[in-house]
Specification:
nine-stranded antiparallel sheet, Beta-galactosidase, Chain A, domain 5, single chain, Gal_mutarotase_sf_dom, alpha+beta, 31 strands, 753 residues, glycosyltransferase, binds beta-D-glucopyranose, hydrolase activity, hydrolyzing O-glycosyl compounds, carbohydrate binding
Length: 753
């Protein structure tokens, strides 16, 4: 049985705790992160907490290029490593009651309660200390994304007269947890005070790579019962002191509003300053309740479409909502310059903003749960970065475009050779997302225009990256890392070879449907692509009836994971890297990822044989993995396995399954629990543009229900002792349910088979 750590209470809509986790505060902070896509914050206390913790506030798209430093420089390495940097700490206060500072790591605190309400993204905690009940409430506005609101209430509970002092900070003197060389990424450009607060203007330190420096202008202002008694600038922070006396049975409130503007939106400093002042002024007309209501309404609209209801398991219910909540707090598609980083706005690990995770795992969810324009934006993001992807290919001496494994701008910014040079399968996922969008929406205009421009360059990359083996009269791809990062420099990764050929084929077909003479794809080039398609080599084993992960995989010691002493797990925390690489253990779906992508191309028998072979060797040490196994298990009728894999993805962070949630949430794999329910349990497929379902109900549940957007319709799928499909919006649609073809006009009901 895998060890889990569950520090938060079970509630269908809330993440709760009734104690301050002194030893595991980082974990508690990760789990109470909030964000609005524009900026986000770990669940740090505003007040001082002197224990071990990780203070982190992040502004989307604000980063720093840190010089790549390695012992042995290899040609083709990216010049720099891109880091998501900790932005200004604007939540910070120092709270003094009767001149004594409240340090939440050491203070004698009673009645502590913490609650993150996923219905509206409001984080609240309260406690009693020194005769005063303190309530802190915060949210990052989704109506005005530059705004963060912090409201404190102080209630006299013991009848003595108390003095309350709040020192309110915007602190630019922050550090990155993952900084290699203890650098400071910010320098202060300007700071000052206003009648009702203060501001700080800071800029990322210069870099030698020509990457734009970022500027942040953060401003704090107050409402409520307190008066500003002092304003200073000290040690990289503006600090406003606010004082008030708290008489018997009275309550004081202090609302701190912070606005953060960035040079991403304003290239001119004076324009940015004017906009910041104007925003603060306009907000001063708006009450707290109005801001709060707008927040609640904004989230209600999101939930109306996205919510998945599970009956019979509050744990599962909380898990799926938490994942959707955190995913949408990271990205809701409003800004096409942004993307979805593996830790979102909840931590720094992994550095960059954009991985193949977006195309492989997030796109299917956003297609169904948001407006089509959201996925369109994600596709456009890659289209805008085509020149950089061409640059990446050139860096490796290759033609066409190589999309980066890790990036902010399109230029590869990850510098481990086995990833940068070898994990080229990512290029396939970028192309696959174009197919996915086109197939799901039925809208071919993106494919015909921007899509083909991307596809042709990716196809050119593959055509150059393959080599011809004279001996076998076949094309091959050597020296790669597949999705399974627990093996490097392998030859003929089945998944990579499959995707490469598929791209060549899909691109050729799209070109013949939508000719694009200006892309200069010559007849010779097309012929060459065709030859590669025909003569590609795929490792397979006839006897086992499986696609082989790569040449040589079957010669490993294929002892199943179940036979390992559990104390070896997770392997990446217990074994030397060398031992991991030599082992047969698979970090994440690899062959099975390919079978999942092209589900209509393989028979059930092929799927079963491959699943039965690879699942026992898979350790799922990438959080991206279990959802794919869950979906395939469900299709194969392995219901228990499907549920087991679902549980790993649904509560991965809430139960700290991989023992690393303290570093931040696994944002990109949060899509996995939704995928497992919708594409797994409900078996929703859109193969060849035909929508179909074949649901089953997990034994422990009484029912589940979800909505999807599909080609202008809104459908509701409810599964309990029967299956009900409601057409809530849009024109009638042909569907397949189990094996029945139906035309859905309003509602269809059948039993679960
Ligand atoms: C996985 C990659 C993934 C990255 C970011 C790694 O652990 O192996 O597939 O892109 O995490 O989520």
């Amino acid at each position: 049985m895998k060890q889990i750590t569950r520090i938060m209470g079970i509630d269908p809509w809330k993440i709760t705790a009734n104690k301050i986790e002194i030893e595991q505060r980082r974990l508690q902070e990760s789990l109470t992160s909030i964000g609005n896509g524009y900026m986000g914050m770990r669940g740090n206390f505003a007040e001082t907490f002197s224990g071990d913790h990780h203070q982190g506030t992040y502004v989307a798209g604000v980063w720093y290029p840190d010089k790549t430093r390695v012992g042995w420089w290899k040609n083709g390495y990216p010049e720099y490593f891109g880091k998501a940097i900790n932005a200004l700490d604007f939540a910070k206060i120092r709270l003094f009651i009767d001149q004594k500072e409240v340090d939440l790591a050491t203070a004698e605190v009673e009645n502590f309660e913490l609650s993150l309400n996923m219905k509206n993204g409001v984080l609240t905690y309260h406690y009693i200390v020194a005769g005063v009940r303190v309530t802190a409430e915060r949210f990052f506005s989704i109506a005005t994304q530059e705004l963060a609101v912090f409201k404190f209430t102080f209630e006299n509970v013991d009848g003595d007269l108390h003095s309350v002092r709040v020192e309110s900070f915007i602190n630019a003197n922050v550090h990155n947890e993952d900084s290699n060389y203890a650098e400071n990424f910010w320098e202060i450009y300007d700071h000052g005070t206003t009648e009702n607060g203060s501001y700080i203007l800071s800029q990322t330190v210069p870099n030698p790579f020509g990457v734009d420096q970022f500027t942040l202008l953060a401003r704090q202002e107050y409402l409520g019962d307190f008066d500003i008694t002092q304003q200073i600038f000290e040690d990289g922070a503006v600090i406003d002191t606010l004082d008030e006396v708290l008489p018997f049975s009275e309550t004081l409130t202090l609302e701190k509003r912070v606005t953060v503007l960035t040079s991403r939106d304003y290239d001119d400093l004076s324009v940015m300053t004017n906009a910041s002042v104007a925003l603060t002024d306009s907000l001063s007309e708006v009450t707290y309740d109005e801001l709060f209501n707008a927040q609640t309404e904004g989230w209600a609209t999101r939930w109306e479409l996205a919510d998945v209801q599970i009956e019979g398991s509050d744990e599962a219910q909380q898990g799926i909502r938490f994942n959707l909540f955190q995913l949408f707090s990271t990205y809701y598609g409003e800004d096409e310059r942004l993307n979805i980083g593996p830790k979102g706005l909840t931590g720094e690990k992994y550095g960059g903003a954009t991985y193949w995770d977006t195309e492989a795992y997030a796109v299917p969810l956003y297609l169904a749960l948001a407006d089509t324009s959201v996925t369109h934006n994600l596709l456009k993001y890659r289209h805008h970065q085509l020149p950089q992807a061409q640059h990446n290919a050139r860096q490796q001496g290759l033609k066409g475009a190589l999309y980066p494994m890790v990036t902010f701008t399109g230029v590869e910014c990850h510098n481990e050779w086995e990833i940068t040079f070898e994990e080229i399968h990512r290029n396939g996922a970028i192309a696959y997302a174009i197919y996915n969008y086109t197939n799901y929406t039925g809208d071919e205009t993106y494919l015909a225009h921007e899509g083909l421009e991307v596809l042709v360059e990716i196809a050119r990359f593959w055509a150059d990256r393959v080599h011809y083996s004279k001996r076998k009269d076949q094309y091959m791809i050597h020296g790669v890392t597949g999705p399974n990062e627990y093996e490097n420099n392998i030859n003929n990764n089945w998944y990579t070879n499959t995707l490469a050929t598929w791209v060549l084929k899909y691109t050729s077909e799209a070109l013949s449907k939508y000719p694009r003479p200006e892309l200069n794809v010559s007849a010779d080039e097309l012929e060459k692509w065709q030859e590669i398609i025909t003569k590609m080599y795929y490792p397979q084993d006839e006897e086992l009836g499986i696609f082989v992960q790569h040449d040589g995989f079957l010669d490993k010691d294929l002892t199943p994971v179940a036979e390992l002493d559990p104390k070896n797990l997770p392997l990446n925390q217990n074994w030397s890297w060398d031992r991991v690489l030599r082992s047969p253990y698979i970090k994440q779906a690899d062959v099975l990822q390919g079978i999942y992508f092209f589900g209509n191309k393989y028979s059930l028998d092929e799927k079963r044989k491959n699943f039965d072979f690879y699942e026992p060797l898979t350790v799922h040490e990438s959080s991206l993995s279990p959802s794919i196994h869950s979906i395939l298990a469900a299709e194969l009728g392995y219901d228990e396995k499907a549920v087991e894999m679902y549980e790993r993805t649904a509560r991965l962070d809430l139960d700290n399954y991989n023992n690393d949630t303290k570093d931040g949430l696994h944002i990109t794999s949060m899509t996995g629990s939704w995928l497992a329910i919708v594409q797994g349990f409900a078996q929703m497929k859109t193969w060849d543009g035909q929508l179909s379902f074949a649901p089953f109900l997990p034994k422990a549940w009484k029912g589940y229900a979800f909505h999807i957007n599909y080609r202008g319709r809104l459908l509701k799928i409810t599964v309990n002792d029967s299956v009900t499909i409601d057409l809530l919006k849009g024109t009638p649609i042909d569907l397949i349910i189990y094996d029945h073809q139906i035309n859905l006009t309003d509602q269809y009901k059948c039993s679960v088979s």
